[in-house]
Design a protein that fits this description.
By secondary structure, the protein is α+β, with helices and mostly antiparallel strands. The chain is built from two helices and seven strands, in the order αβββββαββ. A hairpin with a 7-residue loop joins β6 and β7.
């Protein structure tokens, strides 16, 4: 009888403390995941993305095709694998183009890589803005604002936001 009493007391103890133990393990696990996320956020320095060139590659009645060339600088001591780029581009304060494109580039550690993407614009919706930009761009340089996100192929790493502005020389 004495053995069954201690077995019963052991079952009660397990029942009583197993919930607490399970909850404690869950909190520790979630806290660990949160710490990993904040470590990932702080472990990746923000790359710089700069617009290098805009080239007209096709003009048609309904659409124009432009080639946007970017340079991405990686300040991190490890390569940065980029699997997509989203962007919003303003020229001389006016919205010019925006989008999201998949890519498969790797920016070397403490290095830079160039990337070009083709953008097709609808003449009817962009004609007034393009005419304004071209007309005002006769001064030789045009200001731009570029912002978006780089999707990185690193586990648990969020997309990296970027924003830059500058000017382009029009030839």
């Amino acid at each position: 009888m004495n053995g069954s009493l201690s077995l019963h007391a052991g079952v009660n103890w397990v029942m009583k403390y197993s919930r607490r133990l399970t909850i404690a393990i869950l909190f520790l696990g979630l806290g660990g995941l949160g710490a990993c996320a904040s470590i990932t956020d702080n472990a990746i320095s923000m790359p710089e993305v700069e617009l290098r060139d805009i080239e007209v590659v096709g003009l048609g009645f309904k659409a124009q095709t432009f080639l946007l060339s970017f340079e991405i600088s990686n300040p991190n001591p490890f390569p940065l694998p980029v699997n997509h780029i989203s962007y919003g581009l303003k020229l001389d304060g006016q919205r010019f183009a925006s989008g999201d494109t998949p890519c498969g580039i790797s920016i070397p550690a403490n290095g830079h890589e160039t990337f070009a993407m083709s953008v097709e614009l609808d003449l009817l919706s962009t004609a007034p803005r393009l005419l304004s930009v071209v007309r005002d761009g006769t001064r030789g340089e045009i200001s731009y604002e570029l912002k978006g996100e780089l999707g990185v192929d690193i586990p648990l790493a969020p997309s990296i936001a970027y924003r830059t502005d500058g000017s382009l020389r029009l030839d």
